[in-house]
Structure formats: C-alpha cells, structure tokens
Design brief:
heterodimer, A: alpha+beta, seven-stranded antiparallel beta sheet, 12 helices, 22% helix, globular, B: mainly alpha, 7 helices
Chain lengths: 565, 172
C-alpha cells in the first residue's frame, strides 16, 4: 500500500555509474529519490579495507588461493579479482546463472557497483559510431547522434574529471580534459612511426578518469589529486579516480533528497493496468527476504546491463505477459560485448639511454582505423587498441645461497623495452545473442536465474586475424623485434562490457526504448545503463553510459515539471 | 612478527634459566590443511633448507613473517596439487636420504657439507631436486616482496605522484 514513507518522486534501481548519475540529477533538482542497491553499502574511505596496504602486507602477496580459484572459475578469470580487491566482486556460488555457451559474467554487487574496480578509460563516441548500424546495416539505427550527447559528455567529464590530450580526431572527439601524464619515449616514438606510415592511424594518450589538476568542483567533492598508486581497484582513499562512492553518492546525499537503500533486491516493476503506467517496484530485503513495495512517478532501471534485462523480463503483468515493455518480443535480445581476445607483444632495442621514473595510471590508445570512412575488409566494423611500452627489467635467479642473493640484488633494467597492444573489437549485436529467464532455477530471493546465450561469430574471428596482421605490420615498421601474437581465448563477458537487450531505436517494432531512454510502451520507465545500447562500437562504454543516463534523467525531470510524467 | 620474535627471544632467555626443552624454537606448531602430516620438526627442517637456498635477512630485508611460514603458507594456500605433491614426496625422499646416506642438519647454511648437498641435489632431477626448486621459488617471492627489496631494488613507491617518460640513464 502506498504511504508517505514508501513513496518518492523517482526510484532508481542500481547504484552503479548509470544509477548514480540519475540519482544525483534527481536529488540535485529537488526530487525525492529512492536509490535501491541489491548489495551492501560501500562508504567512501570507510569501506576500502585494503586501500593503504603495502604489497608485503598481503598474506599471499596479492595472489588468490587455490580454493578461491577452484570455487570461482568465472570471476577468478577477471584480471582485477585478486587478493587486494576480491571482496568487491560477486563470487560464483553466491549468484549462479546459466550459460548456454561460455560467458563470464563479472559483477560487483554493492553501492558503487563496478565503478570501484573499473579500468577508468573514458573515450567519447563519434558519429562514426552512432551512424554505424545504419551505414553498415546491422542492429537498428541509433535514435541519437553525437550532437545529442555532446553536451552531456562535457557535463559528465567536468564532474568526474578526465585526464587527456586534445587530439583533434574525427573518430574520437575531444572532451573537457585535465592535463595528461607524460608519454614515455617509446610511446612517443611509436606514435610518430604510425603517423609516418599511416595517415589514418593514431597512437594517443589513453583518456582516463583521474584527477591531475585540482578544480573547485573536485574540492567541493572532497577529492584529491591522483598519486599514480595504480591500485585503484581497492578504492582510492584520495578520491584520485572517479567512482560513484567518492563522488555521486555523497553529492546526492548532501541535497537531503536522496534515500540510499542498500541490501534491496528488486524483484520487478509494478504496473498499474488501469492507468497504464508503472507505479513502483517490488523489493526483497536481501537479508530478511521480506518483500516491500515502493512507489514513484518515474522509475529508472540501471541495474547493470544483464540485471536490467532480468528485472524487465521478470516484470510480467496482464499487459506485459512476456516482460515489461516487451510487445515486440525483442527484450533480452541483441546482446553484444567487446572482443578482447587478441594481444601482441614485442621488444624494442632503441632508446637504451632512456628510462622512466614514477608511474601513471593509464596507457596509450589507438582509436579504430578499420572500415571508418568506407568498408575495406571482409568483416564489419573494427577495433581500437591499448598500447604500452615499459623498460624491461632483468633479474638473474640462478644459484642458491649468497650467490642467489647477490644475483637478486643485481636486478637491473636491460635497456630494452617491452611493447604490448591489445585489441578491443566491436561485436555485432545479433538476435541469437540473448538472455532469458530460467523459470526452473531460482536464486536465493525466489527470482528466476538468468540464462545467457552469447557467443563470438565469424566476424569476430576475422577481426582477430586482421588485428594480428595489422599490428604485426605496424610493430615491424617501427622496428620492434621478437613479435609474438596471442589469442588468449577470453570468453565473452570477460571484457566486462556487455551491452544491449533493451536497445534504443526509433521504431517500437524493432526497439524497446526511444531516444530519451523511455520504454516505448511505458513512458515513465527509463533504462539508461548498458542495456540501452543499440551497438557497442569499440570505446570503453562507461562514459557513454553516464552521459546517456544524465541526459535521460534531465529529460525526465523536464517532463515531470511539465506534468507529462 | 616482531612481537613473535620478541616472545621467542624471551623463551630463549627463560629457557636458559628453567631449561625449557625446546630452546631452539619456541614458535607454536602450525597445522597446514593440505599437508597436515608435515609436523613441527619437518617445518623446522624446511625452514633451514630455505635459509640455505636464500639466506633470510630480517635486519636488511625484513618481512612480516618468517621464511618457513611464508613458503609453507603459499604452498598450502596457493600451490597447485602438483606443488603439494612435490613438497610432500620431496620431503619424504629427502628424509630417507638423510637417514640412509648423510646426516646433514643444515644448521650452518654455509657449511661445506650442506653446500655440496644442495648443489648436487639441485642438479639431480629427482624428487628432491623438484622439492628444492619449489622452496626456492617461494623463498625468492618472499625476498623479492620484502619492503626493502621492493623500494630499493625495484623502485617501488606507494605514492609516486609523478611520471617522467624521458629520463636519461645515469649509466647503461
């Protein structure tokens, strides 16, 4: 029953990046907002237990135990699931799911979600990305273009802090940047070599969500400069990188309009058949398992890509027997991700007289150069790549006793450089890549488990081969030696960039959401996390999720003020 | 660990007075779940061998825990089943060898007999060789993650706060 204590202007489901942005916008503009999070609270500073631990203070020096690996075959394949940050990840047995084909679903169930452990790379999309599906005839046309999102990218960047260079590339629009860290000699060299041999390829500084300059807004947030500790996944006691916990949540709480409610598992959206709109959400207390209903005029579902799909699929009614807003039967379909399977490694014997000093929390980035201006390969779309170069250290570990000790103490940089690149490939959303509910298997809260049926395809395999060929050529032209390529066989999902299932589009027959992220069939329900993505392009998606979420929230606020919602 | 060392030292002093029978090592027996049959005496032996392979130096390269505890904890907690087999079978072979062939107590890590034995066995490609290599692997990890080694020899800094990418080497 609706009462004063369970009624709000807005309800936001999920306290990760997208939900955090929606909650911040609503609270800041005077709307009483309930932010629901299925996991526990993680309070900035207070709940980062390992943030100030030194390497030698970890019992296993950062490693996982054999039992942890055995008990968690999925999450232990994630690069950041290690002794120092494992407490922020969902363990396999806690929240099982079905896999029609191998899929690593990496999750962080807590206030802040995966923003605590994310890789912090933030690149804008361009119209080469938004116009991709229309030009290349896959998925559906995006209902928005870069111009629709540009001001929101700026809005988000100014608030979170993004370090970068203004590169002037049409493929990767510049943003509001704080100063970058230095490049090293080999990164600069490779950038020059690529420029020399390829007019359309660029090796640039990897834009990242770290504070390299102090500004009034960051001081107001209580955040300090990044000190390049490179242990961000533990949570940063300085607030040096952006996460929801240090930035959005405290900001929203200060308004007095936000009610943050952790340990609240959203079961479903409540639909009012008579008034033909959503009126609230059904929530199960994660500890007591008691169910409560909460009511609001507007509901934002931002529970992370696949959980947003799950909630909508589980929200059935007479009006929506196949899932909320799912009149066209496309809910849960066209899931896509990023292909991270290809890496390349080499050595460079130039610049022996130079080394580096200190550390930086980012590497270099090569924006997509394949099939940008025209179709030029036998596969669709393309890939971006990360690139880094670092001095090689050599340690002689021969012998034993005093000789071994002496050898270890003589460790030194050899003068050569290790150079590495990894592919971030766009995958094509397909109807067959989908999630469904397994009505026979339920979780601890009586909610059907998710069944994931997502795989690579021939396009991805061709792209991997092209990456190997192109980067072998680029590395060779730069004079890099001992080049080795590697298909690491990473499973879909291990990129932690799953997107889609509730895609945006112009036509209600072929999409779930309109250009403002409203469900076509129920305008007071918005989806503004990764589930809304029509295609994936190649850029790390979090910045785009945040910009889309802030834009959608402000549209909702405007419509509420006009009495249209 | 410093506290534990202090307690150990008190034990030594007290032992001299009251003639405690375990004057050589007063640390409590630890039971490792994956090799519960490796008792205190064996643990002490493993610690001594680790010390021969890579001398522990708690003054210059202090660590929060003693070498034998670290090595055995790592093998017990993080080691593969293969490594646990190497440890248990290697120890068994070593003990048999020591009883039958030579009575080396490894007390003096630089003793001629000790050095000769370790050198010979490292090259033997036997169970003992694999056992020694395993102890060496984790002994090196212990040493190379000590505060002093990380900061002085690997340039580790907790808060560098800077990055320079074009630093000329002082010597190459």
């Amino acid at each position: 029953m609706k009462t004063v204590t369970n009624s709000y202007d807005t309800i936001v489901v999920g306290a990760g990046m997208s939900g955090g942005w929606a909650a911040k916008e609503f609270s800041e503009q005077g709307l009483k907002t309930l932010l629901l999070e299925r996991g526990p609270n993680v309070e900035h500073l207070k709940d980062y237990p390992t943030t100030n631990m030194q390497p030698w203070e970890f019992k296993h020096r950062g490693r996982l135990t054999s039992k942890e690996i055995k008990d968690n075959p999925i999450v232990s394949r994630c690069y950041a699931f290690r002794e120092d940050a494992k407490h922020f990840f969902v363990k396999d047995k806690e929240h099982p799911y079905g896999q029609e084909k191998p899929f690593d679903w990496i999750r962080g169930y807590q206030v802040g979600g995966k923003s605590i452990m994310w890789a912090r790379q933030v690149q804008r999309w361009s119209n080469f990305d938004f116009e991709g599906p229309l030009r290349d005839n896959y998925a559906v046309d995006w209902p928005i273009r870069y111009e629709d999102l540009e001001q929101w990218y700026t809005y988000v960047e100014r608030f979170i802090g993004v370090s970068g260079n203004k590169d002037g590339l049409d493929t990767l629009p510049d943003g509001e940047f704080l100063k970058p860290w230095n490049a090293n000699v080999v990164e600069d060299y490779f950038s020059d070599q690529v420029k020399k041999y390829y007019a359309d390829r660029h090796v640039i500084y990897g834009r990242c969500a770290h504070l390299t300059e102090s500004k009034p807004i960051f001081i107001q947030q209580g955040r300090g400069l990044c000190m390049s500790r490179r242990i961000c996944q533990r949570g940063c006691s300085l607030g040096g990188y952006f996460n929801v916990n240090s930035t959005l949540i405290p900001w929203a709480l200060k308004t007095g309009n936000l009610t943050l409610q952790p340990n609240s598992v959203v079961h479903s959206i409540i639909y009012d058949e008579a008034n033909k709109k959503a009126i609230g959400v059904r929530v199960i207390d994660s500890d007591t398992k008691v169910s409560h209903d909460y009511y609001a005029r507007v509901i934002f579902v931002t529970a992370s890509t696949l959980n947003t799909n799950l909630i909508l699929l589980n929200s059935t009614s007479n009006r929506f027997p196949n899932g909320f807003g799912n009149d066209n039967g496309l809910l849960g379909k066209y899931i896509a991700f990023h292909n991270y399977r290809a890496t390349i490694h080499a050595e460079y014997d130039g610049f022996q007289e130079f080394t580096t000093d200190g550390a930086k929390p980012t590497s270099h980035y090569i924006p997509r150069f394949r099939n940008v201006y025209k179709q030029e390969t036998d596969f669709l779309r393309g890939y971006a790549a990360g690139f880094d170069a670092r001095p090689i250290r050599e340690t002689n570990r021969d012998g034993f006793g005093d000789r071994l000790k002496s050898n270890l103490l003589e460790t030194k940089e050899s003068g050569n450089w290790s150079v590495n690149a990894h592919m971030m490939g766009e995958t094509i959303p397909k109807e067959t890549n989908r999630v469904t509910l397994d009505i026979k298997k339920k979780d601890n809260w009586g909610i059907p488990q998710l069944n994931i049926d997502v795989d690579y395809d021939e396009n991805d395999e061709k792209m991997i081969q092209d990456f190997f060929e192109q980067f072998t050529e680029m590395f060779s032209k730069a004079g890099f030696k001992n080049i080795k390529i590697n298909d690491n066989q990473r499973r879909p999902g291990n990129d932690i960039h799953e997107m889609g299932g509730v895609r945006m589009g112009n036509d209600p027959k072929t999409s779930l959401l309109n250009k403002w992220n409203q469900l076509h069939e129920c305008k007071n329900v918005f989806v503004s996390d990764g589930a809304c993505m029509t295609s994936t392009s190649t850029q790390n998606p979090s910045l785009t999720f945040m910009a889309i979420s802030a834009r959608a929230a402000n549209y909702a606020i405007d419509q509420m003020k006009k009495g249209k919602l | 660990m410093k506290r534990r060392n202090a307690i150990t030292n008190i034990g030594f002093l007290a032992g001299a007075i009251v003639l405690l029978p375990y004057s050589c090592d007063s640390s409590p027996e630890i039971v490792y779940s994956n090799f519960p049959l490796i008792k205190k005496r064996d643990q002490v032996l493993i610690g001594k061998i680790c010390n021969v392979i890579l001398p522990e130096d708690q003054i210059n390269f202090s660590t929060p825990e003693k070498r034998d505890f670290f090595v055995l904890t790592m093998i017990n907690d993080c080691g593969s089943s293969r490594e646990i087999t190497i440890l248990t079978e290697g120890l068994k072979s070593l003990k048999t060898y020591l009883i039958k062939e030579q009575k080396i107590d490894f007390k003096d890590p630089k003793g001629e007999q000790t050095i000769k034995f370790i050198r010979t066995e490292f090259e033997s490609k036997t169970k003992i060789s694999k056992f020694l290599s395993l102890l060496k692997k984790y002994s090196m990890l212990h040493f190379e993650t000590s505060e002093n080694y990380l900061t002085r020899y690997l340039n580790y800094e907790f808060m560098p706060g800077r990055y320079y990418g074009r630093v000329r080497r002082t010597s190459t």
